[in-house]
Amino acid sequence: MKSVKHHSKLTQRLLQSFVFLLVLSLSFSAHSQDVDEARQKEGKKLFKSLCASCHKLNKKLVGPALGGVEEKRTNEWLKAWIRDNAALRASGDKDAIAIYEEYKQSNMTAFPQLNDKQIDDILYYTTVGEIGKVADPNQTLSTTPKDAAPKWLIYILAAAIVVAFLIIGSLLKTISELKGAPKTPGLMGQASELWQGIKQNTFLHVLTVIFGALIAAYVLFGTLFKVGVDEGYQPIQPIAFSHKIHAGDNKIDCQYCHSAAKHSKHSGIPSVNVCMNCHKNISEVADDTKVVMDDHTLTKKDLDKEIAKIYEAAGWDAEKLEYTGNTKPVKWVRVHNLPDFAYFNHSQHVTVGGIKCQKCHGPVEEMEEVYQYSPLTMGWCIDCHKETKVDLKGNEYYAKIHEELAKKYGVDQVTIAQLGGKECGKCHY
Amino acid sequence: MKSLKIIIALVVVASLASCNNKRKPQVQYMPDMYVSVPYDANGVTSAGNVPVDRVPVAGTVSRNGVVAYDIADTNEGYEKAKAELKSPLAKNEINLEKGKELYGIYCATCHGAKGDGNGTLAKRDKFNGIPNYKDRDITDGSIYHVIMYGKNLMGSHASQLNHKERWQVVQYVEKLKSELK
């Protein structure tokens, strides 16, 4: 009887909390119904196209955060400011001058083309903000993917199965022996008999020596050929920078950051001011961004810390939005490193040759972590020089020599090698 | 004696296996020929433990002779550049072609291939409110000034483009603006 009583009490509690939740959710949905979605949408569209380059709702950018700006200023003042803030300042409005000075005298673009309704829609958007963006924390928790079973667990299970079979086998053997079957020599006994036989066979001796020598030669040459060849080298970098996100998803050109490649021997590691061209605005990654590294996955929480590392290096105060002057170098680990006795020039290949970066560096736009794609050996260079035909278009200055060389080798179009791209002194001097 | 053999075998196997560690570079034959005495251009630190790649001393002029830009990064400077600065380049196909190529690399990701402010980063919601060139009152001089110093959220692109390239981009942006009308 007692347990039934408990039970009914529990049901009652559950019902109560359920009703409470229902009421709560209803009140929430009622709240969101208050918002005029059409106006909000219109305002958001205008805000995004006109204001968002300098303003955010919840954060200072070039100009102040605009969330709830209607509470701070009157509607007339805001309209006057948006239409022509310079005129408002010139009229001697104290608030206008104060805000202009506070934001380091950055001129806000005047928007005389906006009518009253459009401005009101924008202001409406700044007041109500996003609709339905109140994230349910439980939901985000439940969507975190559960990783597959760790690798070591699989190994342990496999080992356990093998051990179990061995135990069963030995048990069966003991049972049959107990039942009176003749005692067979153990595994070790069989092996030693076999070993005695092998030891006396000369043919097998010779075969073993040859086989051993072949294996040794294979291992030796395999090791020697790897000396100084860093194909597949993938060092851990100080900042978890994903080329896949930047060059792949966002389609930023390689040369945007590696801007030295077009003029210099080196492709150049971008200095942090280049990072800051975008990351001044992008201080956090999108909610669902994920970077799958070799042995671990980085989510938004980790990636935001990686962006903070750029701010530390650049001496950027993300709160006050200004440079502190306290900079720190980022110690990137060099991946591609030709030995100093070989000369290689990026501009020669990128600008003159017009070769795509991917030809040597592989599909960098798909790499979360960069690795060395090509072996960068001499044979690899020479192979390409032998195959690649020189593009003669727009190269009239050298037309005569190209023609004569083509005649000499009996071809239509000379290759880089025929132009001297195989001479030792071209790369080693 | 037997355990010694096992240890040696283990060491050999371990050293062979470590050759396949992709986090570490391979062994080099004669490393002092691979890495010579001078500092690498991308090296970490040089004498006195200061970084190799540093901001040049103020007033440094490259051997090719970079044309000085002495208009200040202020509102007055912007107005001055807008009114007075003129392109030293001839308006021709070669410059326009080069400008198009450079625009594609350095500008189109945000400003869009047509200059309508609808580049990949805008489409993917990373940057908002990038203006259409036709909505902006811009001149040769003001475009050059903004490439030099940046404006609002746009950063300076002076380190990525040299003097001539900036003017080539300016020429192409002017062309885009005229086509947008």
TrEMBL record, chain A:
**One example GO MF annotation:** electron transfer activity
The superkingdom of the source organism is Bacteria
- Leader sequence range is 1-32
Record has Heme as a keyword: yes
Q: Which UniProt keywords apply?
A: Electron transport, Heme, Iron, Membrane, Metal-binding, Signal, Transmembrane, Transmembrane helix, Transport
Q: Which PROSITE patterns match?
A: CYTC
Cite the Cytochrome c domain residue spans from the record. 38-130
InterPro entries xrefs: Cyt_c-like_dom (IPR009056), Cyt_c-like_dom_sf (IPR036909), Cyt_c_III_dom (IPR020942), Multihaem_cyt_sf (IPR036280)
- Looking at the UniProt entry, the stretches that span the membrane are 152-172, 203-225
Check the record and name the PANTHER family matching this protein.
CYTOCHROME C7-LIKE DOMAIN-CONTAINING PROTEIN, LIPOPROTEIN CYTOCHROME C
Q: What is this protein called?
A: Cytochrome C
